[in-house]
Amino acid sequence: MLDLTDIFTNFPMLETERCILRAIRPDDIQDIFEFMSDDSVTQYLPWDTASTLDDATNQIQRYVTGIENQTILTWGIINKSNHKLIGICLMFNFSLPHFRAEIGYALGSTWWRQGFMLEVTSKVLNYAFNDLGFHSLEAHITPENIGSQRLLERHGFVQEGYFRENYYEKNLDEFTDTAVYSLLKSTWSKHT
Fold this sequence. Notes:
By secondary structure, the chain is α+β, with helices and mostly antiparallel strands. The protein has one domain (5-191): 3-Layer(aba) Sandwich (Aminopeptidase), CATH 3.40.630.30. Helices cover 34% and strands 33% of the residues. The protein has an eight-stranded mixed β-sheet with strand order 1-2-3-4-5-6-8-7, with helices on both faces. α2 (29-36) crosses α4. The longest helix has 16 residues, at 53-68.
């Protein structure tokens, strides 16, 4: 069974060519609010679009609590060029006896289609497989989220399942489908 206790105690800072990945802090509130208040960013995410700074504060508290409870590793994505937090990347739903976890991400729309999320997720996937020892990772996406689908497929993820109307989308007041993608460490090793 994987033991991540030390990782939660000594939160890992990661670095890519253009970004620093670090723990979310309370002083990130304005940057978190900026991308969380954008409907195009939150459209496919499991939280409401932020309308106040309190919404961003609550989201930050969920990230901090996730680390304290050892249930979620959330990295803030800091753009090196302007030191601005432009998104998040997280690992959660840990199944440590099975060496498996889920990955998620969100990026401010200003930074879309510039390769930032490919760069960040590459680093996180490499860290998860080669440093933490995970055997497989999964991602759950809304099937209409073509950008996320393409990102996952570029990394070698394959669709494992499709669940019809399994998620209640409060903002839409309707049930939506979920596509489940998975990546094995052996596939990642060949893909990189």
